[in-house]
Amino acid sequence: MTPFEGAAYWTEVGEAKREAVNAWIRTSKEYDGVIDFDAAVHDPQHPTKFLPQFDSGDHLHPNDAGYDAMGNAINLGLFK
Questions:
Q1: pLDDT given for residue 59 in this prediction
Q2: Is the pTM of this model over 0.85?
Q3: How far apart are CA 77 and CA 80, in angstroms?
Q4: Cβ distance 5 to 60 under 8 Å?
Q5: Half-sphere exposure (Cβ direction) of 60: Cα atoms closer than 13 Å
Q6: Whole-angstrom distance, CA of residue 41 vs CA of residue 11
Q7: Rounded (5°) CA angle 63-35-48
Q8: Distance, CA of 76 to CA of 73 (rounded, Å)
Q9: How far apart are CA 74 and CA 41, in angstroms?
Q10: Whose CA is closest to 36, among 24, 46, 45?
Q11: Which of the listed residues 24, 45, 64, 73 has the most CB atoms within 10 Å of its CB?
């Protein structure tokens, strides 16, 4: 799940849930592979937010550059 701090309904509770879901997805071994869109677009200095160059302005959806970064994060080898 990508970051959403700054969106109208962001809360610390919602952020804690997002972090917990992402941690589970990354570590549970329930999946054959994971495409980590959060890692592709979050700001390393403020991981609850998009990098400014990827934020559409609503702080919830990526812009075209963000979608490009997400696409580039996909390891096509997962689909072999």
A1: 97
A2: yes
A3: 6
A4: no
A5: 7
A6: 20
A7: 55
A8: 9
A9: 13
A10: 24
A11: 73
Q: 73: how many CB neighbours lie within 10 A of its CB?
A: 14
Supply 52's token pair: 């400014």
Give dist(CA 66, CA 80) in Å, integer: 25
- With contact defined as beta carbons under 8 Å apart, do 42 and 77 qualify? no
- Using alpha carbons, select from 6, 25, 27, 3 the residue that is nearest to residue 16: 3
Residue 48's H or E segment, with its range, is strand 46-50
76: left (phi over 0), alpha (psi -120 to 50) or beta: alpha
Structure-token match 């994971």, residue found: 34
**Residue pLDDT, tens place only, 23-73:** 999 999 999 899 999 999 999 999 999 999 999 999 999 999 999 999 999
